[in-house]
């Protein structure tokens, strides 16, 4: 049952993660486009290019995480909410460092900002 803003924010993030996961599972190239990454046609990918496999795995993880968020929100597991704040901030740090150190394209900054917004919204929801 969703009884407060914290529950609602986690529930909404869960739905969004499920939708992102489904989009990545059905159209990985769309995810690459949304992240402003260069998209290479599948027929032109070299042997050993596992981009689509990685996106499939990440999308399934996103879908699963979305389900976890829905279960946590429905059961008002506030300890989980707090846990997500900390790990979203760690994710922000890692993604920004990956871009800064040349390990990832600048499009990953959008994902870092998404995670930062999620952490801040969830944190703020505890004090509203």
Task: Describe what this molecule looks like in 3D.
With 128 residues, the protein is an all-alpha fold. Helices cover 75% and strands 0% of the residues. Helix 1 packs antiparallel against helix 3 (51-74). 20% of the residues are buried. The model has no long low-confidence stretch (mean pLDDT 95).
Instruction: Show unreliable segments.
Output: none
String of helices and strands: HHHHH
Please, what is the average pLDDT?
A: 95
* Cα-based radius of gyration, to the nearest Å: 16 Å
What is the count of helical runs?
A: 5
Helix coverage percent: over 70%
Shape verdict: globular
In whole angstroms, the N-to-C terminal distance is 19 Å
Largest sheet: none
Strand content: under 5%
Task: Give me the count of strands.
Answer: 0
Q: Name the structural class.
A: mainly alpha
Quick synopsis:
The radius of gyration is 16 Å and the shape is globular. The protein contains five helices and no strands. By secondary structure, the chain is mainly α.
Give me the secondary-structure topology.
Elements: H1 5-26, H2 28-34, H3 51-74, H4 78-100, H5 108-127
Helix pairs in contact: 1-2, 1-3, 1-5, 4-5
């Amino acid at each position: 049952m969703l009884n407060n803003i914290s529950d609602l924010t986690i529930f909404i993030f869960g739905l969004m993660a499920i939708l992102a996961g489904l989009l990545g599972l059905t159209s990985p190239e769309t995810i690459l486009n949304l992240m402003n990454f260069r998209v290479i046609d599948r027929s032109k990918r070299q042997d050993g290019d596992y981009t689509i496999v990685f996106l499939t795995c990440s999308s399934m993880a996103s879908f699963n995480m979305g389900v976890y968020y829905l279960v946590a929100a429905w059961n008002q597991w506030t300890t989980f909410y707090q846990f997500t704040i900390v790990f979203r901030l760690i994710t922000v740090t890692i993604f920004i460092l990956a871009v800064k150190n040349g390990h990832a394209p600048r499009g990953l900054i959008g994902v870092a900002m998404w995670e930062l917004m999620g952490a801040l919204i969830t944190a703020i929801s505890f004090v509203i």
